[in-house]
Amino acid sequence: MNAINSGADFYVIGGGVIGLCAALQLQSQGQSVAILEADKVAAGASFGNAGHLATEQVFAIADFGIIKQLPAMLFDPLGALRIDWTYLPKLLPWAMKLLLSMKKEPSQKIHAALKQINGVSLAAWQDFSHKWGLANWVFAKGSLLVAESESSLLSLRQHGKKLAALGVANTFITQHELLAREPALAKNQLGALFFPDTGHVGNLSAMYKALIGHFIGMGGVIYEGCKVWRIYNERQFVRLITTQGEIMAPNILISAGAFSKSLVAQATGVEVPLDTERGYHLMLPNEHNRLHIPVTSMDRRFIMTPMHSGLRLAGTVEFAGLKKPPNMQRAYNLLKLANPMFNQDLDSSQSTPWMGFRPSTADSLPVIDKIGRVYLNFGHQHLGLTQAVVSGQIISDLHFGRPTAIDCTAYKLERFGQPLK
C-alpha cells in the first residue's frame, strides 16, 4: 500500500463534531493534524442531531422509572422507543450492563460525571464560538421542557426542584408565561421549565463549513472516504491500514462515534460496551419562526428546534444496530407528535426525513482518555454536540500535559477493562 502523504503529528479517525472540534484545537496549538473520515466530514449524527446544547441533561440515558414505561412505549406506534427484535441477541450484553448502571451507587457516579462535563460545556461553546466566529449560528437563549397533563405538570415541578437542588438552573413558568414566550403553542401545553444555561445551533452545516475552513486554513488535512480497517499499536508508532493506504502515525485519536468499538479494541485490547441508539429527525423547511428556542415535550418525548433552514423535529430511540436500513416512518411519526402541540398544524410540505447513529456506552458516559499514542474521544450518546468542545479541549490538554478543566477519572477507558501495555 502507498502511504498517505501527510506527515501529520496527529491522525484523527472520525470527522464528526467530536473529531472536528478536537482536530481544530490541536491544529491551532501547533500540531499538524489529518482527519481520516470514512464518509463525509460533519455528516452522520453531527449533521442530523437536534442542534440542542443540552447541558440540563445530567441523568443517565435510562433509569428504573423508564423500565416501568417500556411496555407502553414499545407497543405505541408513536412511542419514543423501538427495538428490532432480531437485533435483541446482540443488544442483550449491552442492555445487561445498562441495567447494572441503574443501581444507586453507579447511577449517582454517572450523574455526577454528566453534571460535571455538562456544567462547563456551554461556557466552552461560547468561548469557542467567539474564537472562531460562530455567533451567527450558536445561540445561548435557553430551552423549554413542556408538559400537557396535570400528572406530568406535577412531575415537571418535581424535576425542576430536583435539578435546582443539584445546581442546574431552571425556572418553572405557568401556561400564561409559556404562551407569551411561545404563542404558537396550543393551550394544551400547561406549563414548562425554562433552562437558561442551554443553547442551540441554528445552522449546523454552516457552522461546520466555517470550522472546516479554519482547520484547512491553518494547514489541517482532510481525507474523506478513508475508512480505517485495522489498527496496530506498535512501539514507535501506530500503524493504520485504510482504504487509501497505510499510515505510520505518531499519534491517533479515535473519535468515530458509533463505529469506534472495534477500532478501540484493536488499539487497546478493551471491549467497550458501546451500542447505537438510532435517532430520527424530520426537517420542515417551510416552518420558520414558529418557535424561538428549542422545546422538548415531557409527555411526547421529542424535541423541536428552530433552525435557519426550518423547524427540526427530532428524537426517538431505535435499537437495530448499524446495518439495518432506516425505518423512515419513525421520522414521519414526529409530525404526528408535534401537530397537537400547536394552534395550527405545521407545514410539512417538502419535509425531509433522516436517521443516524448515536454512540451510547452502557454507563451513559463518554470515553475521553490517552493510552500511550492512542487518544480516545467517543461515546457521548445524545450529548455529542453539547460536549464536543470541552471534550476536544481535554484531548488537547492530555496531549500537551496540561491540567484538564475537569477531573477526567470518570471518562477513562479503564473502567471497562485494563488496556494493553
From TrEMBL:
It comes from the Bacteria. Keywords: Oxidoreductase. Pfam families: DAO (PF01266). One of its GO terms (cellular component) is cytoplasm. GO terms for molecular function: oxidoreductase activity. Residues 9-398 form the FAD dependent oxidoreductase domain. The keyword Oxidoreductase applies. SUPFAM superfamilies: FAD-linked reductases, C-terminal domain, FAD/NAD(P)-binding domain. This is D-amino-acid dehydrogenase. It comes from Moraxella cuniculi DSM 21768.
